[in-house]
Sequence to fold (334 residues):
Amino acid sequence: MSLLFWIIVLSPIVIFFVVYVMTNPTSEIYLPQISIPVSKIKLYETVSSLTRLSKPRNYTNVDALDEAAEIIRQSFEKTGGNVTIQEYQFSDSTYRNVICSFGPSQADRVIVGAHYDVCEDQPGADDNASGVAGIIELARLLGKLKPRLKYRIDLIAYTLEEPPFFKTGHMGSDVHARSLSDNGIPVKEMISLEMIGYFTQEENSQSYPLAPLKLCYPSVGNYISIVGNLGNWGLVRRCKNFMTQACSVDVFSINAPAFIPGVGLSDHQSYWKYGFPAIMITDTAFYRNKNYHRPSDTIETLSFDGMAEVIKGVYWYITQRSQIVVTPPPAKEA
Fold:
């Protein structure tokens, strides 16, 4: 048989396999009976407090970063978690990661993180006060609901994610991941919350780094995305399965090489660098939100209904992942 024959026969199979691996489909469905008391008011309050500082919270305004870190620390303290500060020096300044931990202190870690700095002079409501509001709300839920955990859950607000520090050893997430690696601390997984607040119903509001992806994903930016490299296929699938159960917002995912623009564009790539499994949960940033790195990235542009649903999904995942006795999802009524 000719080579052309085999190309014709095998091409659909290869395409199906590539699309399956990339999109990581799941049969799980939303279960509205799962009740998680996420507070939209608390989410709003956190974003508001971080976006209304006297100066933008960028690396040149160390006082503003310190003020943001203190807001986060105080919010964490109210949840009853164990709060610590990881300080490090760059140039003549001190920068801080703020950490809130739940569960057994010596157990393997599940990390959920979000950066609190901004790029240049903008309020950074979606990028990334939304993610910080998310980890603070997760801490509040863990403190209130008190699930019995077999893993240690670390909720971390990172400093210095934005340029000129991105992909350097001065990123807060790089400092943290390196400290784990240097001390041989086992990490089950890391989840980066990177811009989780912008949702729209406008047609053709969603774009993609590669044109063929339009054939696999929606054209309307009203979903949340889980992003991983090819090595984290199982982690993406597991996270997607649980998030889909508790989150009424549609959950899509992509596993793709890290060189594709956007796949590694947050703090999770710091953990890849040290060999830890890590993924990102995102509203896809500049592929949807035209306010990205602009003064127009304000609180008024965010959907707190959408953010709340995302946090429901993340909470359900990290607790079902980490509980000593896993709570089965409630059966659907006939």
The chain has a mean pLDDT of 93. DSSP finds eight helices and eight strands in the chain.
